[in-house]
Amino acid sequence: MSEVKPLRPDLQAIADLIKPGSTVLDIGCGDGELLKWLMAQAQVDGRGIEINQKEVNRAIASGVPVVQGDVNTDLTYYPDDAYEYVILSQALQAMKDPKAVLAELLRIGRYAVVSVPNFGHWKNRLHLGFLGKMPVTKTLSYQWHDTPNIHFCTITDFVELCEQMNIAIQRRIVVSHRGIPTRFHGKGFFANLFGEQGVFLLSRQASWHSHS
Predict the structure, then answer these.
(1) For every residue of 43-101, which 3-state class applies, written as one string?
(2) pLDDT tens per residue, range 113-122
(3) 206 Cβ partners below 8 Å, 6+ apart?
(4) Residues 103-119 as b or e (16 or more Cβ within 10 Å = b)
(5) Which residues contact 1 (CB under 8 A, 6 or more apart)?
(6) Section 176-205 average pLDDT
(7) pTM of the full structure
(8) DSSP E strand boundaries for 144-210
(9) CATH number of the domain at 9-204, out of 3.40.50.150, 3.40.50.12580, 1.10.10.60, 3.10.450.750?
């Protein structure tokens, strides 16, 4: 495996939630940057799935085991409890059915680590309120007409969805535009106002059912 570079701060926040030596499935893993770091630095047994074949090729070339697949349709092929951790980073908002995908993550893995961009950040509110246009930021970097993001949510929205689905939030980290964790947590006003991303460690509740 080639040299492992330091992770971006937002990916490091995810990596810090993964227990060393565990089994990991990284969904929508891109070129495998996070998996490569976890395999080298945390000795995880990692696998990835990515829809973009060029990214898959780059991951494989760097020694990361990644297969080409569509998250919207292919998660059903994975058995129950196949991994200890399933990661979905900055991709839930691009899924056709985010609620169904969340249920699949926690069917396949004991824990799910999910990060979401926060549309409720103060810059987005200001941009929309004063300019009357959809914001383009480092976290939400596309124009409205070419974005892969088909669902926009806030940190509060995501926390409330987990509550509705009876999903337990074991850890929550709110990160800044630089990807650095902030002191704001949860679905409170300040977390929703000042966090550009939310990173969540999720698990099933005792009474949770994947098809509820």
Answers:
(1) CCEEEEEECCHHHHHHHHHCCCCEEECCHHHHHHHCCCCCEEEEEEECCHHHCCCHHHH
(2) 998 887 644 3
(3) none
(4) bbbbbbbebbbbbbbbb
(5) 36, 39, 40, 62, 63, 64
(6) 66
(7) 0.78
(8) 167-175, 197-204
(9) 3.40.50.150
